[in-house]
Specification:
With 478 residues, the protein is of the alpha/beta class. The protein contains 19 helices and 16 strands. It has two domains: 287 residues, Rossmann fold; 152 residues, Isoleucyl-tRNA Synthetase, Domain 1 (Orthogonal Bundle). The radius of gyration is 25 Å and the shape is elongated.
Length: 478
Amino acid sequence: MEEKKTFYITTTIPYVNADPHVGFALEILQADCLARYQRLIGAEVFFSTGTDEHGQKILETAKKAGRDVKEYVGHYAEEFRKLKSVLNLSNDNFIRTSSEEHRLAAEEMWKRCEEAGDIYKKSYEGLYCVGCERFLNERDLEDGLCPIHKKEPVLLKEENYFFRFSKYQDKILEYLSLPKSVFPDWRREEAINFVKEGLEDFSISREKERLGWGIPVPGDDSQVMYVWFDALTNYISTLGWPKEKGSNFEKFWTNGFAMQMAGKDQVRFQSLMWQAMLISAGVKNTDTVFYHGFINSGGQKMSKSLGNVISPIDLVNEYGTDAVRYYLLRHIHPVEDSDMTLDKFKEAYNANLANGLGNLVSRILTLSQKYLEKCPEIPEKSDFTEYFNFFESFEINKAADYIWNEISELDKYIQATEPFKIIKTDEAKGKELISEMVLRLYRIARMLNPIMPQTNTLIKKLIKENKAPEKPLFARKD
């Protein structure tokens, strides 16, 4: 028997200083969809997500809230863990950076980089953004402000450990020369341009006196690891690293295909800093880093102050899990920025789920239940090559479009053939038409597996039982 290929996919791990937002829901659903697709084609899959729980922002936010930092991060970690049931995720692990398993891996990463001669200590004075938790150069600023947080960085002077990032300029360019290293390709060009501008060694620790919430630096209790150095290691700590032989790390990272999902603002961290750390530690580089765009609302960036933040949990409570999966995977572009509003969501829901798929299922299965004695024989296999090709090129939205084109064509076929009329004058022909429609609907249900798994299961069950749904699959919203 041919050995199955192994596929590893991970999201970034969100900072636990706020409730889950729709932008992260997009990332985790993209990862889940690709994981489900890989399982469909026979791969052995490991899908990981988790939470980033150290750093200055979290410590300050916990203090402002008057809460113990461990209790604070524990609360928010559970809020993100809930996404597994809320969004029907198929992840195999949920890694927390405050866990013992992760601490041991972060310490090992430090020690390996140190043994490679890539960690040194020096005094440094520079502009520091608390929001980014990193030092910024003048070239990073826009009108003197952090371009992400729109705040003026503070001048900070302290003695830290640094990573010899500059040493890896040529090796990172060599890695980025691989077309598969970054998707989409224009993000790879962006990464290459960052490198060509020149890599500067970056700080990888903070003084414990100023920041006591983090993993202590091995051999120096006066310092804690910089949150990014610590957090990036989660991509392999979740696989049991530094254990190698016979571990998930060996199976899925070393010998498998390793894919990371991240937002477009993560290019420097994921494709430059993290890759340099891996090279320094003697670990294989990530095979592909996939960068998605941002979700805006009404033409503006989502923010609490504007009151346009959309909660994925609220959407699920109102519309159901598969409706949210459907919208984010079809109507939000996989890699470009997209606009989303509650009105757009409702419009798409009513048109394509309530009036589209839901109505089609009801019409066909009502005819089947009334005129067929049993479910027609379902072929064991179907040719999904054209559909699967969209997943191979990470075009999840086009895969969803393909399904809805099939739904539209089947609906047109019903209108053209009118089996509900024919069966009254030619029973055999009518049953033949209805059977064909049932089988085409089953094919559609199969394709829904990675995108809308609950709906996939329900439609197949109804077809096999030869029953019409007792209530609408997707009730229309007024």
